[in-house]
Specification:
heterodimer; A: 754 residues; alpha+beta; seven-stranded mixed β-sheet; B: 289 residues; Uridine Diphospho-n-acetylenolpyruvylglucosamine Reductase, domain 3; Enolase-like, domain 1; five-stranded antiparallel β-sheet; four-stranded antiparallel β-sheet; 11 helices; 14 strands; globular; binds flavin-adenine dinucleotide
């Protein structure tokens, strides 16, 4: 890892010891499944074996009578949101959420919950599930996105119409800039290609889990999610419980990557707990996670880009069809909005289609949609560079978006750091090292790709309290999935001028801290830094007032420096500085406890850009591709905790390499997922990857007190194209679908040989 | 909930008796790296488990004069690797058994379990087939011996009769200039299942191949002995033409399926590619200059 800027901060930009590290490596961290309660019973879900079936009736009587069973729940128990009226919670429509947590009219995918049982043991609950009789009218199904768009495809939802006809196309989004036809008319070279990607899962190691207790109408939820406030609101909607009667306590989270921004188990467990009068625990198996939680979309895209002879892109058109799964909501905004966003292109038409099909409902996955769009665009950019005989990085540099560029998805960019990522890659030893010649029958290649993600602000709350001994406790309201506690400690310690070890950062539950939006959109460090900064500044104001009181001078005559209150100058009087601890010790006498909170809807999170360089080795006999060297260059604004930033960059690349080479949802002929385990759903293992190098570039965001931009999502945007372009460089043959698995690579080579 | 009875007899006779008495409800437990996984995911629900790891003959390695060995069915992969002489004389068998799983799995997983699990993709089986291993079987009717390739009957099915237990494998004596090798294709670098596995055992005399056996895994319902490929190698100097002929024979022997792990076309082609690479390694080990 390297960082390109130096600074004289004490804590910001330093790799302070992670507050969650020791607990995690010693196994003490309490994840959702680690919580138990006296009298606790177990919930299990009965899932549809059919990918598409009308539910004629459900008979739960035998299950209810089974010894040990305490409660049974079906869709009848979940609040119904009628189909004709949208009720939005963030990006989720409650019409779809109520049908996703429990099938209502129809089972829409194999694995769709149709009922749930709570019993004294997990085994009894599972046995009782089998006693539930569901009368299904099995319907024809469709899973693939292209198939689902065909005119004769089985229709999932009668209420969805497109062009006046029943359709699986649930939505369309269009970004336009300039005049696309006129743009292509000016181009000397135009390249148009078609790309396909498979659904891939976020692959968090911790399966969904929760424990819910309901007493006197008040529910307490312990669960693993990317937002305890989301859990509270969803459960309130789906169970008809007022929000003040639900306390959602966030567990330590074992990975989410977007997939834990919605609920599956919590409302069901709440209803089971309410019915049974007992605390109910539910844990998904890995198989359930794969079958029934949301992977990201599979896709079918067409991208056409035109450039002049001198290498200027003049027109770009993209059409991205994304598989939403059972219910609408695929991330077309990310695909259509981000794909051309790195470039200054005068004429753009970018269109996304949201397509439903009989697969589990899509959930967010790191930069939702953006990797799918970037994969297509960055591969075409590579072909254009080659056609124009320009170095692929120079081609990107020539067309790079800068301050003042108007992007098709709306904004005119403020100061952004895209150019810096390309320049940094160009001068990096990785890019300067020649690509190895074929050796021992192995072929080598290098590819590059860039990417963009919007980043986000949104609602955050923080409370900064000074303890009686002068140490500091900070509470924020979003689960820490990427190092936000460490970053918050660095910022608080920096502003207060104290040792970061004197600052403890906790994630508050819904009843102890104000509303805070999801951990997602690369927003948490950005937004929480803002509220924490303002809270800490208010605390400093209080500390100056207290010192002023002790010294009997005007608060304006007191400054806060290096963790101490000092007289502002000689005119203020001569006093020994007062430390935080000294002031805290006198807090009661000087006005009471010291602390402050801030709640904001933050704005000004500016886009993040990255450029990646990837070297591969291809075994032409077996079609195996191995990544040998990988370097990512990313503008992060400001790396508050570089170690965590590096982790985000590496993690995104690792996931991207998996998406590129080996991960895919495979369905059997009956429409059931055929690889619901980590054995056959092939995420890379550590020996599959080289050291993933990262270069942190800091072009501070002028709208943020520390200069932060989002970090966590951009790293997953460029890898698929970077790997694809490297494979082309090695083989002289392009692959247009993911994953680029050995059978596909070998087939492509055989075709080339013919 | 049904109870499971766990037995750990000290003699083969007791084990056979208990296993036969349990009839269909009984399961032999060696390393358990297949059995416990299958029990956990509910595909197998035994009533009686007969652990064979306390039986001396089943857990030991014995040398036979002339480079032969008798390997107990329940010897772990780690124990095979730590036997210096076995590793030297049968490097292909040992490397195949050592490819199973990870370090943790190696401490438990056995060649007997690998064979008796009946997967066509089991890694040690093609190497044992190439080695010409003979399986020692004991059942209620006594002992019998059979070539390893005759034991699998299909995915998850064996040519064993009720109450029969695999006791071990005999690896034949080894003439000078002999060695073996095993290669598998997996998409990842580890923790994966063979899409194709290939074992080659051969003997060289002055650069000419005088004996050879080829085993192929994951390309048919059972692991295959590919005699046609061996014939192509025998008598040759393992030149490109002979290897090509053997590779074609391997591809021709494949009767694979299209599944989540590989396509028919892919497996068929890769069987030939692996044959060439495996034979080259075996030849090198056998002392080819
Ligand atoms: C994480 C992991 C990774 C793995 N990786 C691989 C791999 O890379 N390659 C591979 O081939 N396999 C792999 N396996 C599968 C497994 O480890 C192997 O098949 C192993 O060789 C099984 O041996 P065992 O002693 O554990 O068998 P067990 O689980 O004890 O037995 C397997 C089956 O054979 C029966 N059995 C065992 N011994 C006898 C006997 N002597 N007589 C009659 N029946 C018997 C059992 O009843 C059972 O049905 C992996 C498993 C895991 C969990």
């Amino acid at each position: 890892m390297s960082t390109e800027t130096a600074n004289d901060n004490k804590w910001i930009g330093k790799n302070t010891i992670r507050p969650d590290g020791a607990d995690k490596v010693t196994g003490r961290a309490a994840y959702a499944a680690d919580t138990t309660m006296p009298g606790m019973i177990w919930g299990k879900i009965l899932r549809s074996p059919h990918p598409h079936a009308r539910i004629r009736s459900i008979d739960t009587r035998k299950a209810e009578a089974y010894p040990g069973v305490k409660a049974v729940v079906t869709a009848k128990d979940i609040v119904n949101f009628p189909l004709d009226k949208s009720v939005m919670l963030g990006i989720q429509d409650m019409r779809w959420m109520c049908r996703n947590v429990m099938a209502r009219e129809k089972a829409l995918f194999a694995g769709h919950p149709v009922a749930a049982v709570a019993a004294t043991t997990e085994k009894i609950a599972a046995e009782a599930c089998k006693l539930i009789e569901v009368d299904y009218e099995v319907l024809p199904f469709v899973i693939d996105v292209e198939e689902a768009m065909k005119p004769d495809a089985p229709i999932l939802h009668d209420f969805i119409q497109f062009d006046g006809k029943p359709s699986n196309i649930a939505g369309k989004l269009e970004h336009k800039l300039g005049d696309i036809e006129a743009g292509f008319a000016k181009a000397d070279v135009v390249i148009e290609r078609t790309f396909r990607t498979k659904p891939v899962h976020q692959g968090y190691i911790e399966p969904h889990a929760c424990l819910v207790s309901v007493s006197d109408g008040k529910a307490t939820i312990w669960s693993s999610s990317q937002g305890q406030f989301m859990v509270r609101a969803m459960c309130a909607y789906l169970t008809g419980t007022p929000q003040n009667d639900i306390r959602a306590i966030p567990a330590e989270i074992g990975g989410g990557f977007g997939g834990k921004t919605i609920v599956y188990l919590e409302p069901v467990a709440l209803l089971l707990a309410k019915k049974s009068g007992r605390p109910v625990k539910m844990i998904m198996t890995r198989g359930e996670v794969f079958h029934a939680s949301g992977p990201t979309s599979g896709s079918f895209s067409k991208v056409k880009i035109g450039a002049t002879k001198d290498g200027k892109v003049v027109a770009a058109q993209g059409t991205y069809c994304l598989q939403a799964g059972a219910l609408p909501g695929s991330p077309i905004r990310g695909a259509a909005g981000c794909s051309f966003a790195p470039y200054d292109i005068p004429n753009v038409l970018s269109v996304g289609y949201d397509v439903v099909s009989n697969r589990s409902k899509v959930a967010a996955y790191r930069a939702p949609g953006a990797p799918i769009g970037a994969y297509a665009v960055e591969c075409v950019m590579d072909e254009l560079a080659e056609a124009l005989k320009i170095d692929p990085l120079q081609f990107r540099l020539k067309n790079a978006a800068k301050q003042g560029t108007k992007a098709a998805h709306g904004p005119v960019y403020p100061r952004i750091g895209f150019v810096e990522t390309i320049e940094s890659a160009l001068k990096h030893p990785h890019y300067k090292t020649p690509v190895p010649k074929p050796k021992n029958g192995l072929l080598h290649g290098r590819g590059v790709a860039s990417g963009f993600w919007f980043n986000a602000g949104g609602e955050s709350s923080a409370q900064v309290n000074i303890a009686e001994d002068g140490t500091v406790v900070v509470i924020t309201g979003h689960p820490d999935i990427g190092g936000s506690r460490a970053s918050t400690a660095n910022i608080t310690a920096e502003i207060l001028g104290i040792d970061y070890k004197k600052v403890s950062v906790l994630i508050g539950d819904t009843s102890v801290i104000g509303f805070s939006n999801l951990t997602g959109g690369s927003r948490v460090t950005y937004a929480s830094a803002m509220v924490v900064t303002q809270s800490t500044e208010q605390v400093i104001t209080q500390l100056r007032e207290r010192a002023a009181k002790i010294w009997k001078i005007d608060p304006d005559a007191v400054v806060w420096e290096n963790g101490e209150a000092r007289p502002a100058g000689d005119n203020a009087g001569k006093f020994e500085p007062l430390t935080l601890a000294q002031i805290a010790a006198q807090a009661s006498a000087t006005g009471g406890p010291i602390g402050a909170g801030k709640q904001l809807n933050t704005v000004g999170a500016e886009g993040g850009f990255a450029t990646h360089v990837c070297d591969v080795e291809v075994d032409p006999g077996l079609g195996i591709v191995r990544v040998l060297r990988y370097t990512s260059f990313q503008d992060v604004g400001r790396a508050i905790h570089p170690g965590y930033v590096e982790g985000q960059m590496q993690g995104g690349v690792a996931q991207g390499i998996g998406w590129a080479l080996s991960e895919e949802y495979i369905y059997d002929k009956s429409g059931k997922l055929d690889n619901p385990s980590f054995l056959d759903y092939r995420m890379p293992v550590s020996s599959d990857l080289p050291m993933l190098d990262s270069v942190i570039i800091e072009v501070p965001n002028p709208k943020h007190p520390q200069g932060v931009r989002g970090v966590g999502e951009v790293p997953l945007v460029p890898p698929m194209a970077a790997v694809a372009n490297a494979i082309y460089n090695a083989l002289g043959r392009r692959l247009y679908s993911l994953p680029m698995s050995p059978p596909k690579v070998l087939a492509a080579m055989d075709q080339a040989a013919e | 909930m049904t109870d499971i009875q766990y037995l750990a007899p000290r003699t083969l006779d007791e084990a056979v008796k208990a296993f036969a008495a349990a009839a269909g409800a009984g399961r032999i437990l060696a390393g358990g790296t297949d059995l416990l996984v299958q029990m956990r995911n509910g595909t197998v629900r035994p009533g009686v488990i007969v652990d064979i790891k306390k039986i001396a003959e089943v857990t030991s390695i014995e040398e036979i004069a002339g480079g032969g060995f008798r390997i107990g069915a329940a010897v772990s992969g780690a124990a095979l690797r730590e036997h210096p002489k076995l590793r030297k004389i049968w490097p292909g068998v040992v490397e195949a058994a050592n490819l199973i799983g990870s370090t943790q799995i190696q401490g438990r997983a056995t060649a007997g379990g690998n064979l008796c699990n009946g997967s066509p993709a089991g890694d040690s089986v093609p190497a044992l087939v190439a080695a010409g291993a003979v399986v020692i079987i004991q059942g209620p009717k006594g002992r019998r011996e059979v070539a390893v390739e005759k034991v699998p009957a299909g995915p998850g099915r064996l040519n064993l009769t009720a109450g029969e237990i695999v006791v071990g494998f005999t690896l034949p004596p080894r003439p000078k200039g002999s060695s073996d090798a095993y290669l598998r294709m997996i998409p990842r670098t580890e923790m994966d299942i063979a899409v194709v596995g290939c074992g080659v055992s051969l003997t060289l005399d002055n650069g000419t191949c005088t004996a050879a056996r080829v085993g192929l895994g994951a390309v048919a319902p059972t692991v295959l002995l590919v005699e046609e490929a061996a014939r192509a190698l025998i008598g040759s100097k393992l030149d490109a033409a002979a290897l090509e002929k053997a590779a074609v024979a391997c591809s021709a022997a494949c009767r694979p399926i299209d599944d989540k792990r590989g396509t028919i076309a892919y497996r068929t082609k890769v069987a030939g590619v692996l044959l060439k690479r495996t034979a080259a390694i075996a030849a090198e080990r056998a002392g080819r200059k």
